[in-house]
Write a structure and sequence with these properties.
This protein has 303 residues and is of the alpha/beta class. It has 14 helices and seven strands. Helix 2 crosses helix 5 and helix 8 (166-177) packs antiparallel against helix 9. The chain binds S-adenosylmethionine.
Length: 303
């Protein structure tokens, strides 16, 4: 029987990510390199990545790790799909950078790291992939082992505690009602295509756009559970988008109005924490959650 990982890797092998030809992909990667691929993170944008080891776990066609290579980082990309790794290698050549790519399931990333004697990372990018892996908790443990002390993890996934769980709700219905990629896509498109079609800003063909939403499987992972697992390892959350608590909310770009600040001071702390979480559950229009984490040394360990 196929695992979640088999289904997802097979599916993404058939989707040319973002559906760009090599020339357009190279232009896109060069543009991202100008501002680095970290949406919103101020911590990571401040760092000079030149000469640092940057690993992308689930690199796809290299749209996040190759901009780092253009900024002088030593890049290692891992993906379960041979086809995606092939695209990433083509894109590296097109933008004129050296980057190392390996085909491996993320479930085996630590044993592969040890077998190939790969260097520990200053930064791991794990973007839009952990919800596709069989055993996301184990992946967090393995990524922690691959990071240097003081290294960073840039983690994004579809958090079901955002935007009324709408993204996961539609994915679960379409995925569980269908029996293969084609039927899931057809069911999802018929039921929810009218709601989601406006999100296709890159004008991708239906086969790519809807397959990602309905034929891939997204494991529902809440921000609370992810936070617990990161904290159980040595990973401290330094930034969260959207914010997870009042402190993060007060720091959000654009600031908070004087009236809201006064209100926050009058309400007990436990209630404001919940209000922040509810605000993003009911009001946010996007499901992706971004956590920027730092590996801290909680307990003595042999490196
Ligand atoms: C949505 S793409 C994200 C690509 C890239 N991280 C980005 O943000 O542009 C998901 C990628 O994860 C890979 N993937 C999914 N499950 C995987 C697994 N269990 N092991 C390795 N790669 C996996 C897929 O092959 C695909 O390339």
């Amino acid at each position: 029987m196929k695992t979640i990982s088999d289904i997802n890797v097979e599916l993404f092998s058939g989707i040319p990510h973002a559906n760009l030809d090599v020339e357009k992909a190279a232009a896109y990667i060069s543009k991202i390199a100008e501002r680095l691929p970290f949406e919103k993170s101020t911590e990571l944008s401040k760092i000079d990545w030149h000469g640092k080891t940057v690993v992308e776990a689930g690199c796809g066609a290299g749209f996040k790790c190759l901009p780092m290579a253009l900024n002088g980082a030593n890049v290692i990309g891992i993906d379960g799909s041979k086809a995606q790794v092939g695209r990433a290698r083509e894109h590296a050549k097109a933008v004129g950078v050296d980057a190392e790519f390996h085909v491996s399931r993320l479930e085996n990333i630590l044993s592969m790291w040890q077998a190939k004697n790969l260097p520990k990372a200053d930064l791991i990018i794990c973007s839009a992939v952990i919800h596709h892996v069989s055993g996301w908790r184990t992946l967090v443990e393995q990524l922690n082992e691959i990071l240097k002390p003081g290294g960073w993890l840039y983690l994004t996934w579809c958090d079901w505690t955002l935007s009324l769980s709408g993204f996961n709700f539609k994915n679960q219905i379409a995925f569980k009602s269908g029996w293969n990629a084609g039927s899931r896509l057809a069911i999802g498109k018929a039921l929810f295509g009218w709601v989601d079609k406006g999100r296709n800003r890159m004008n991708l063909p239906d086969d790519s756009f809807y397959a990602d939403l309905y034929s891939a499987y997204y494991i529902p992972i809440s921000a609370g559970r992810m936070r617990k697992q990161l904290n159980a390892n040595d990973l401290e959350i330094c930034e969260s988008f959207p914010p997870m608590d009042v402190q993060g909310w007060l720091k959000k770009p654009g600031g908070v109005s004087e009236r809201n600040l006064k209100l926050v001071r009058q309400i007990p702390g436990w209630l404001t924490e919940r209000l922040v979480r509810w605000r993003y559950y009911f009001i946010t229009a996007h499901a992706p959650r971004i956590f920027v984490c730092k590996r801290i040394q909680k307990k003595p360990r042999v490196e």
